[in-house]
Specification:
The complex is a heterodimer of chains A (about 110) and B (about 110). Chain A has about 110 residues and is mostly beta strands. The chains are: A mainly beta (about 110), B mainly beta (about 110). Chains A and B meet through β5 and β10 of A and β4, β5, β9 and β10 of B.
């Protein structure tokens, strides 16, 4: 069963634009909601994460918005740059393990 | 500091052969995870260990897969016998149990 649904599968954004990736989860038992970034040939790396006691967290150009009642969270990348082109995974955490979404391939064009 | 180290980076083998993937976690981390990544299924958790003890192996596909962690600095994932559908990138990750996972660069397995 898929516990976390991620969309879109792929995304093309112009340089300077805003990239938005969404995730929805089914079980309210989770208490940790990270986003990971993966470049080709590399392992995923933590980008930003949020706990359910806050609705938003911002780190530089990256923001997580969290809606506990709707069981949804999203990643916003402001002023998107070509160097942001990568695959992004949301994840849900509980009990020391992470369950990942299916990933979004982001391409930022000049 | 050295990150998570995986070997081999690439493995090509024939159906029916035994495959062993290796992982050295970050020193001091007490959790170790094995994930499999494919285009169709994304990142799937296969098994994870805490203090060298397997905690959850519910993601291991079938009895052909086995994982061990004989000490805090080494783990193996073994597939015997291998099948073409096992072709994927296998990632090892480690953590302190605070949530953040540190991934290795993966082992790309191709079973012909």
């Amino acid at each position: 069963q898929q516990q976390v649904k991620q969309s879109p599968q792929s995304l093309i954004v112009q340089k300077g634009g805003i990239s938005i990736i969404n995730c929805a989860y089914e079980n309210t038992a989770f208490d940790y909601f990270p986003w990971y970034q993966q470049f080709p040939g590399k392992g995923p790396a933590l980008l930003i994460a949020i706990r359910p006691d806050v609705s938003e967290k911002k780190e530089g150009r990256f923001t997580i918005s969290f809606n506990k009642s709707a069981k949804q969270f999203s990643l916003h990348i402001m002023d998107s740059q070509p160097g942001d082109s990568a695959t992004y995974f949301c994840a849900i955490g509980g009990g020391n393990k992470l369950t990942f979404g299916t990933g979004t391939q982001l391409k930022v064009e000049l | 500091d050295a990150g998570v180290i995986q070997s081999p980076r690439h493995e090509v083998t024939e159906m029916g052969q035994e495959v062993t993937l290796r992982c050295k976690p970050i020193s001091g981390h007490d959790y170790l995870f094995w994930y499999r990544q494919t285009m169709m299924r994304g990142l799937e958790l296969l098994i994870y260990f805490n203090n060298n003890v397997p905690i959850d192996d519910s993601g291991m596909p079938e009895d052909r897969f086995s994982a061990k962690m004989p000490n805090a600095s080494f783990s193996t994932l073994k597939i015997q016998p291998s099948e073409p559908r096992d072709s994927a990138v296998y990632f090892c990750a480690s953590s302190w149990g605070t949530g953040e996972l540190f991934f290795g660069e993966g082992s790309r397995l191709t079973v012909l």
